[in-house]
Design brief:
- The chain is of the alpha/beta class and about 375 residues long.
- It folds into two domains: about 170 residues, NAD(P)-binding Rossmann-like Domain (Rossmann fold); about 200 residues, Dihydrodipicolinate Reductase, domain 2.
- The strands form four sheets. It has a seven-stranded parallel sheet with strand order 3-2-1-4-5-6-17, with helices on both faces.
- Strand 4, helix 4 and strand 5 form a beta-alpha-beta unit.
- Helix 7 packs across helix 12 and helix 7 crosses helix 14.
- The radius of gyration is 20 Å and the shape is globular.
- It starts with a strand and ends with a strand.
């Protein structure tokens, strides 16, 4: 059977997802929808050129126009939302109204929990809603589920993830490889983790430590927002620990935290010469041009450590993924890990491999099934079990 997909947002990750669905999603049609038709058409041509197929097309669609969105969605099997996170709650309602299944790139746990609260409506409509796909949150949680399955019993999960330039340049040591709104959302607020079986809220930029990665060397690891999504709630009562830190190159943490201490990630306007200015908007305007690049030659890493027991003995499982910019397709690693995790989930939704309803990713997507699909796409995922 063939499926039709609509991807709302024709940016980096949306284009990568469209490419993957055209090749691996049993697609009859992949539509890139964006309020900027020129961008959507450019993305569709790029996908068709890379795949050698003619499955991708382009339309104009504004995520804020919910009436038009509902009408458009009804023509497709699955919506993949690749627009900023703050559109996704309304898009979930639109998908349910249109009777269309959906996944998204998420990024804000409070909104995701509101999407999950629409489970009864989604079940009644017979649709599958899986928010918060991508690299992190997303692939890290899915690989954690996979690691848990390699143990007879699991008690503790520790996740590290990050997207970094292959050749960092001072003073930033960073390249923008996804939405600047998504990036600064990670630098604001806190993260709910599971510790000693209890939900604990940690502030961003806390608990910094230096870790030694076997491939990337020394890295700074610290708490950032959003990366665990709803997993701590899901696994409360089943695990003692579920936590995550993001990684950056040494020396990066200090200036990121200094921006936070200055209030540059805040959303409440401040008066500047009598005019209201949102600090985060100012930060976007100043910071993004410094870290933007036309070609992002990056490396992404995810490491999951799972502790528990196997065959009656204490055991630990380590899952490692290291992925790099692909010069053959021109896709950055962030585009691959983010866009392709979402597209794998979208294809599973289309095939009916996930539950009906608005279901947390960590419940909806089996870890072993995801790893099987990821390896088909060339992701190098290693696993080590120590007993």
């Amino acid at each position: 059977m063939s499926y039709s997909y609509i991807i709302l947002g024709a940016g980096r990750q949306g284009t990568a997802a469209a490419y993957d669905l055209a090749l691996f999603g049993d697609a009859e049609r992949v539509t890139l929808a964006d309020m900027n038709l020129t961008q959507a058409e450019r993305a569709a041509r790029h996908v068709n050129r890379l795949t050698g197929l003619n499955l991708a097309d382009a339309i104009t669609l504004d995520a804020r126009d919910l009436c038009a969105t509902v009408s458009t969605l009804s023509e497709y099997h699955v919506l993949l939302s690749a627009v900023p996170y703050y559109f996704n709650l309304d898009l979930t309602r639109a998908a349910i109204e249109a009777g269309v299944s959906m996944c998204d790139l998420g990024g804000n746990t409070d909104l995701v929990r509101q999407q999950h609260a629409l489970d009864a409506e989604a079940r009644q409509a017979g649709v599958r809603i899986i928010p918060d796909c991508g690299m992190g949150p997303g692939m890290g949680n899915t690989l954690a589920v996979y690691a848990m399955g390699l143990l007879d019993a699991c008690e503790h999960i520790y996740i590290l993830d990050g997207g970094l330039p292959q050749e960092p340049q001072l003073p930033w040591n960073y390249q923008a490889s996804f939405s600047i709104e998504g990036l600064t959302n990670e630098y604001y607020g806190g993260l709910t983790v599971l510790r000693d079986g209890e939900l604990v809220s940690l502030p961003v930029f806390s608990e910094m430590e230096i870790i030694q990665h076997p491939v990337l060397g020394p890295l700074e690891a610290f708490v950032a927002a959003g990366g665990l999504s709803t997993a701590p709630w899901t696994f409360q009562g089943k695990l003692k620990t579920f936590q995550l830190k993001i990684v950056r190159y040494p020396g990066t943490y200090a200036h990121l935290k200094a921006y936070a201490d200055l209030g540059l990630y805040d959303l409440e306007p401040v008066l500047v010469n009598g005019a209201p200015v949102v600090p985060r908007h100012l930060f976007h305007a100043l910071y993004e041009p410094k870290v933007r690049a036309e070609v992002v030659k990056d490396v992404c890493m995810i490491r999951v450590l799972a502790l528990g027991s196997k065959n009656g003995h204490p055991a630990e499982v380590t899952i490692d993924l290291v992925d790099r910019y692909d010069p053959l397709t021109g896709f950055s690693s962030m585009e691959r890990t983010t866009g392709w995790h979402a597209s794998i989930v979208a294809a599973m939704i289309a095939r009916g491999e996930t539950p009906i309803g608005a279901v947390p990713l960590e419940i909806a997507v089996p870890g072993d099934r995801f790893v099987q699909e990821a390896k088909l796409r060339g992701f190098k995922i290693s696993e080590e079990i120590k007993i």
